[in-house]
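step=encode ok
step=design start
structure_in=
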């Protein structure tokens, strides 16, 4: 039974970290180490972690340097054949590791195994909505534009994949890095893209929703302007070694991100900004309408409805739309479950 190294960056998650750690300890796959990377957390998160006595847990401390640096530290300390990432406010279902290890053991060409995710709110309540990415035959262009892996709590990755893409952070340090510590957003996309472009490892998903992804509108993902800045950094970094891909896909990637940000600010109840982001997406790459007409028109409809309709009517329409979407997603997941 191969060992899995589970890496959890710990920063400002005192409200959630106990449940997150417990979801790892309750895994049906038992051969793992749990590396809790204290990224200079200012709250009681680490104190809470210290209350667990399981010998598989290791707490590693560093000065606050961000999630990329925390993940890099975890990878450098990892002893397992596989490395799994989990954010400090998300949860795993008990069979998460077991199913990913089986996937990787049975798929020797797959370097990154990921799953779908189910959304939960701040109180662990299911929102009955899911991330439904493409699972197979994933290309670099799809990673660049759509990031099928979805979030930082779904992938389980072979240690040798990281060995293939490691680099030194700067000339004065011998420290090996895997994620780009200059990025605060898209650090995962940049890493997966580098793996897809610079190695022969495949990226492949399994259909179950094995990660519970917490929707936190106050988190870093709501900083929309910084997200756009970091996307430009990823585009320019990728251009340095894959110019053809960037020339083909940069505007498409920008448009997909602008459309995502339109949906994000809809969640923040800012209709005017949502309309602006949706219009920018279309102006940047109008073919988004042809490539994903349903998602694009639903985004436009949500933005304009929020902007123009009374709040009470908008909320009623939103509730109906979300229930229909969630039910359809759940049916699809059940239909695609292994028999």
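sequence_out=
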């Amino acid at each position: 039974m191969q060992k899995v190294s589970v890496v959890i960056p710990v920063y400002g998650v005192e409200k959630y970290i106990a449940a997150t750690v417990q979801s790892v300890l309750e895994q049906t796959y038992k051969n793992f180490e749990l590396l809790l990377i204290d990224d200079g957390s200012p709250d009681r998160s680490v104190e809470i972690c210290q209350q667990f006595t399981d010998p598989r847990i290791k707490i590693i401390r560093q000065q606050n340097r961000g999630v990329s640096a925390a993940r890099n530290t975890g990878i450098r300390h990892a002893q397992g054949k596989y490395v799994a990432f989990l954010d400090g406010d998300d949860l795993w279902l008990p069979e998460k590791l077991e199913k990913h290890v089986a996937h990787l053991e049975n798929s020797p060409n797959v370097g990154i195994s990921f799953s779908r995710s189910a959304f939960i709110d701040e109180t662990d309540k299911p929102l009955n909505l899911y991330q439904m990415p493409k699972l197979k035959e994933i290309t670099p262009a799809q990673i660049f534009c759509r990031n099928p892996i979805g979030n930082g709590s779904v992938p389980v990755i072979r240690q040798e994949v990281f060995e293939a893409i490691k680099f030194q952070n700067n000339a004065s340090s011998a420290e090996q890095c895997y994620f780009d510590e200059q990025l605060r957003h898209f650090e995962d996309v940049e890493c997966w893209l580098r793996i897809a472009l610079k190695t022969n490892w495949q990226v492949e998903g399994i259909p179950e929703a094995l990660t519970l992804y917490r929707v936190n509108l106050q988190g870093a993902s709501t900083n929309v302007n910084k997200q756009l800045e970091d996307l430009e950094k990823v585009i320019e970094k990728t251009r340095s070694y894959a110019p053809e891909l960037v020339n083909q896909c940069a505007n498409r990637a920008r448009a997909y991100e602008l459309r995502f940000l339109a949906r994000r600010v809809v969640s923040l109840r800012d209709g005017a900004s949502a309309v602006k982001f949706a219009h920018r997406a279309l102006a940047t790459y109008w073919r988004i309408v042809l490539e994903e007409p349903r998602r694009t028109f639903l985004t436009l409809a949500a933005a304009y409805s929020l902007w123009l309709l009374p709040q009470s009517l908008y909320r009623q329409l939103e509730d109906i739309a979300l229930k229909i979407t969630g039910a359809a997603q759940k049916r699809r997941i059940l239909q695609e479950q292994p028999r």
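step=design ok
step=annotate ok -> The first helix runs from residue 17 to 25.
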